[in-house]
Amino acid sequence: MLKVTNLSKSFRSGDTTVKAVDDVTFSLETGSFVSLVGPSGSGKSTLLAILGALEKPSGGSVEVDGQDISELGDSGLTKYRAKNVGFVFQNYNLIPNLSAVENVMLPMEFAGLPSKSRLARAQELLDSVGITDDKQLRKPSRLSGGEQQRVAIARALANNPKIILADEPTGNLDSQTGKMVFRLLQDLAKKQNTTVIVATHDLEIAGKTNAKLSLSDGKLKRSK
């Protein structure tokens, strides 16, 4: 279970304090598929960054299966990210000089997975998202946008994370490819019991998730 309680994050901008996340509270059962919606600047990316331990909150707590990650030190946060969280970004964030399979193997290396098992698992994950045969050996520049995003999803799955955080994962894709990526994320929640949170401006996608969280000026407005 993911439990967020009175979470806040503030930044200084000149003489002004900006509350990017303002007293947000919610909880999600394991395996939930959730959309996070709101206008630009509403705090979606900041909230995802806190949930993924990329940023520390100014206040409040984030508990994952009873562990409060807000209390972890830097080394503990690094281990948490490596073992518990998979990230999917709008711009894919693949390493350009690595092949698709090498990109997927990389987080396994960081997590200390034995070298003999990295290649087999990376190939299996790429097969599962439809990147097969010679495409696994191609660098990102030789893959389409949709193929790059599928590689990014496979990479996010490398260490069997409890949570997938996807920040506008279909934003750079055409409608048909975006729907395909959405279905992949939806299947993850169902088949692997992974909690998936998708920040999106696409209200059609948001309407098909199990629950919806809506942010405005850092505040959680409603959920369903």
Description:
A hairpin with a 2-residue loop joins strand 1 (2-13) and strand 2. The protein is globular and about 50 Å long. It has 7 helices and 10 strands. The chain has 224 residues and is an alpha/beta fold. Helix 3 runs parallel beside helix 5 (145-156) and helix 4 crosses helix 5 (145-156). It has a single domain (28-56, 73-223), classed as Rossmann fold (3-Layer(aba) Sandwich).
CATH class: Alpha Beta
By CATH, the architecture is named 3-Layer(aba) Sandwich
Q: Main beta sheet, described? A: 6 strands, mixed
Stretches where pLDDT is under 50 for at least 5 consecutive residues are none
Q: What is the number of domains?
A: 1
**Total E-strand runs:** 10
Mean pLDDT: 90
* Tally of helical runs: 7
CATH topology: Rossmann fold
Question: Which labels suit this protein?
Answer:
4-stranded antiparallel beta sheet, 35% helix, 7 helices, 224 residues, alpha/beta, 6-stranded mixed beta sheet, Rossmann fold, single chain
